[in-house]
Amino acid sequence: MVVTRDGDAVAVLLGVSDDEELERLLLGHSRKLGAILDAADRRIEEGAGMEHDEFWEQVESESRGREKNGSRKKR
Fold it and tell me: What pLDDT was estimated at residue 70?
């Protein structure tokens, strides 16, 4: 459904079938997420990325470190 004001489209009402579809819709139109992904792409193109296995080794290492300290990283 298209919502109009004075004949101009101002909003769209979409039906979603589940929470995952809603999340994909919202993230797909998120300017903030788009900017984060664009910046990440630029860093990778500049050679600042890391290999898949290296990434997961780092994640696991940091996770083990937090478990030892009994703390969780704040977001």
Answer: 73
